[in-house]
What does this fold into?
Amino acid sequence: MSSIRSRRARRQQSELNMTPLIDMVFILLIFFIVTTSFVKEAGVEINRPVANTAVTNESTSLIIGITESNEIWIEGKIYDVRSIRGYMNRFLAETPEGSVVIAADQECKSGLLIKVLDACREAGTTNLSVAARIPS
It folds into this structure.
């Protein structure tokens, strides 16, 4: 009788309950997903102008790209200047504290850059900046 009890005791001791460990891993995964900020890239390569007073901005939520051929790119898609305000309204509804960086090519029309800036401001963007390269 004692040998049966000792076998059961050894078997119970050798079992490891994995449920708390799995729960903890899922909680950490959810925590990291929720706290991660995602940057929406323009989706196009821009040759930014050099500025001696440029500073690095680490808290960017959206990048709007204006190419040399005066195309406006957001998240890998081309947009017309008239649709920027509507896009920004949707973006700000999803991310009220989101910051926007406009990366304009040094050869693009300055008038188009001003129209994009105005559309972003009219939509209510408070954290708006224009990208430039830091001189090397």
About this structure: The CA atoms of residues 12 and 18 lie 14 Å apart. DSSP finds four helices and five strands in the chain.
